């Protein structure tokens, strides 16, 4: 109840003996409104908390191409009332692998495996997914109060003990919980460890772009490369690979072209979009089958993006006082397992579990440490799987499984 404006624990035992019946909802400030930040907002609003997200961009043009929604991701989305097939997600039904000459390899009917999973494996446009998660976090409908997204709100400082954020415009935000969901270039890491954790090159970069499927199917040279809908295809060279999979109800083909970063001169940057060159792209893949090169040529030159694939040493901890990191801020992923978005969602869901309704502000630091204990081993294990899957091919040895 409230006494002189202050919240106090109410009488009566909580159904959960580890949670106090604290009446006031927690004030939660999330730095970053990407997939991880918004997933956390959904999970925490459902617990009745007051959630504000601070995003330095204006979110006017959420970029990126397609992403994987593995069964673990879809289990959470469906629990939150989000069904990706309603906004263009494709089921992953077929997988094929070929060499750079479009020879050899194998084909797998994934539909035989789909029945083993509780939820589907899907492929979806990142921007559409982001829009739906944002709507679920901020809609007036649904359990709890809507989360509020503050755009053009750059965070420049934080005090994990006091629970405060400093914005670039001089505003001070007071919160019971601070979550750093500001991605691979996170500025919140230094407030956890006291040092600015440095990213390092993985040795690879990726061109990414989308091509309309209709243009590919209309060309008899390229049509056989995409002979099945809902198919993920990978063409391997020794130190480079070309990955293609559909999104938008099979209307678009998403390309991920992973190669040695020295060949595209990609450099680390805070920008998600870094323009690449189609001439550069064709040079990197010049030894691939001519039909694959014709396929690549169908991209509009202005739509080729390239960035380095970066990695980071494992942090000693993700939490400090009232501050916790999640998603790529805590455990940046290379893309070779398609789990970056999924693990950020799992982080958000876990935070909703350890910070249920009735949690008192005094319990927050311990609760955030519990969150890390729950998530740390799983996230870092999958992170390492992704690193292994991205290794170059060695002739005569079986490849690591990868699903970029």
UniProtKB/TrEMBL annotation:
Family: Belongs to the paxM FAD-dependent monooxygenase family.
GO molecular function: FAD binding; monooxygenase activity
Annotated keywords: FAD, Flavoprotein, Monooxygenase, Oxidoreductase
Family annotation (InterPro entries): FAD-bd (IPR002938), FAD-dep_Monooxygenase_BioMet (IPR050493), FAD/NAD-bd_sf (IPR036188)
Stated name of the protein: FAD-dependent monooxygenase OpS4
Positions of the UniProt region annotated as Disordered: 381-404
Pfam families (alphabetical): FAD_binding_3 (PF01494)
Entry annotated with the keyword Flavoprotein: yes
Organism this protein belongs to: Colletotrichum spinosum
Span of domain FAD-binding: 27-385
Domain of life of the native organism: Eukaryota
């Amino acid at each position: 109840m409230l006494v002189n404006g202050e919240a106090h624990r109410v009488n009566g035992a909580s159904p959960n003996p580890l949670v106090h019946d604290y009446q006031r909802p927690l004030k939660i400030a999330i730095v970053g409104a990407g997939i991880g930040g918004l997933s956390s907002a959904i999970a925490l609003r459902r617990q009745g908390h007051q959630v504000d997200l601070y995003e330095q961009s204006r979110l006017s043009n959420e970029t990126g191409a397609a992403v994987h929604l593995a069964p673990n991701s879809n289990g959470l989305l469906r629990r939150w009332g989000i069904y990706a097939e309603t906004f263009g997600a494709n089921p992953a039904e077929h997988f094929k692998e070929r060499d750079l000459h479009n020879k050899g390899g194998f084909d797998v009917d994934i539909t035989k495996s789909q029945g083993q999973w509780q939820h589907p494996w899907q492929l979806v446009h990142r921007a559409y997914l982001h829009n739906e998660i944002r709507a679920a976090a901020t809609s007036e409908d649904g359990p709890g109060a809507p989360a509020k997204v503050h755009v053009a709100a750059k965070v420049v400082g934080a005090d994990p003990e006091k629970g405060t954020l400093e914005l670039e415009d001089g505003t001070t935000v007071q919160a019971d919980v601070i979550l750093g969901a500001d991605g691979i270039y996170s500025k919140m890491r230094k407030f956890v460890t006291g040092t600015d954790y440095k990213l390092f090159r993985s040795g690879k970069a990726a061109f990414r772009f989308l091509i309309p499927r209709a243009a590919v199917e209309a060309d008899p040279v390229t049509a056989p490369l995409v002979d099945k809908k809902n198919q993920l295809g990978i063409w391997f060279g020794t130190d480079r690979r070309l990955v293609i999979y559909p999104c938008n109800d099979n209307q678009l083909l998403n390309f991920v072209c992973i190669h040695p970063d020295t060949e595209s001169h990609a450099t680390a940057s805070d920008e998600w979009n870094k323009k690449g060159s189609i001439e550069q792209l064709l040079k990197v893949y010049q030894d691939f089958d001519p039909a694959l090169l014709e396929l690549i040529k169908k991209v509009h030159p202005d739509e080729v993006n390239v960035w380095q694939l970066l990695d980071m040493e494992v942090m000693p901890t993700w939490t400090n006082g009232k501050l916790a990191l999640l998603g790529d801020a805590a455990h940046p992923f290379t893309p070779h397992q398609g789990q970056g978005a999924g693990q950020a969602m799992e982080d958000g869901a876990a935070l909703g579990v350890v910070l249920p309704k009735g949690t008192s502000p005094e319990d927050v630091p311990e609760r955030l440490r519990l969150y890390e204990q729950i998530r740390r081993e799983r996230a870092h294990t999958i992170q390492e799987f992704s690193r292994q899957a991205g290794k170059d091919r060695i002739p005569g040895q079986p490849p690591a499984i990868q699903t970029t």
